[in-house]
Amino acid sequence: MSESPSLSSNFSAPDDDPLLKKRAGSRGWGVLSILLGIFALLSLFGQTWWICGGLGFLGCTLIIIHLNRHQTSPAVRYMAAGGLCMSLLIISYTPTRYYLHEDAIARQAALFGNDWIKNILAGKPSKALAALKHPETRFAEKHLQTFYLKTIEGQQELAQFKDKLLVKSLLRLNGRARSQFYDTESSRVQGSDQIITNVFSVSYLETPLKKKTFFIRLVLKHSVMKTGNGEWSILRYRGGVRPREGRYSKRDAVADHS
């Protein structure tokens, strides 16, 4: 009786193929790179999240280095490169957007504060007084004269404002002075608002040959309205101050005196 031929058992199941395992592992690195690139998108939520972009970029870089040491399919390399490019784009974009925004806010604060002083110097204290109010309750410019000059409440507010020492001093100059932005002392975020403290210089000729300069410190607030637009207002003002930095600061004045 002849024996039936036996089946060869010299083959491995597909799941035990080392090449397939290697390819599956490489594919996992590619997927991880994409996930790290997506993880870097958390940086868009603000400064405290910037570390997510850095970790995503670092992780993708390490994966690229690892894959370069092993033979992997082009698809996996494209996935890894995609994650790396995504994270690199994010860590480049978020700080740039932030600092451009900060620069724009600082410029607006300087312009608004200088205009506030110029309005008083030009004999328009009602416009300066309106800037002290919250943008949502502030009168439109065309209604300022009516409220502050023709209503009892408005007249009282304007009289009290004009009686302030700084306002009185600026009005006395009667347009003979020049104001300009000097320095930003601080900038901070308070909820959805931004608070900026700026110093402005006011110069005028005390005599035909003698120029005099004094400084005003303004605390300005940038508020985001319901419409999404930003509006400025003056929180506090003080005259006769010394800048904290520069040639007119107290520290430098003491040094020059000594």
Measured as a percent range, the helix fraction is 40-55%
Unreliable runs: 4-13, 252-258
Oligomer: single chain
Task: Write down the domain tally.
Answer: 2
Across the major sheet, the strand order is: 1-2-3-4
Structural class: alpha+beta
Protein topology:
Elements: H1 18-39, H2 50-68, H3 74-121, H4 125-130, H5 141-150, H6 152-162, H7 165-173, E1 178-190, E2 193-207, E3 210-224, E4 230-241, H8 250-257
Antiparallel strand pairs: 1-2, 2-3, 3-4
Give an account of the 3D structure.
The chain has 258 residues and is an alpha+beta fold. The protein has 2 domains: 14-99, no CATH class; 104-257, Roll (Nuclear Transport Factor 2, Chain: A). Helix content is 52%, strand content 21%. The chain is built from 8 helices and 4 strands, in the order αααααααββββα. It has helices at residues 18-39, 50-68, 74-121, 125-130, 141-150, 152-162, 165-173, 250-257; strands at residues 178-190, 193-207, 210-224, 230-241. A 4-stranded antiparallel β-sheet has the order 1-2-3-4, covered by helices on one side. Strand 2 (193-207) and strand 3 (210-224) form a beta hairpin. Helix 1 runs antiparallel to helix 2 and helix 1 (18-39) packs parallel to helix 3. The termini are far apart. The relative contact order is 0.09. Residues 4-13 and 252-258 have low confidence and may be disordered.
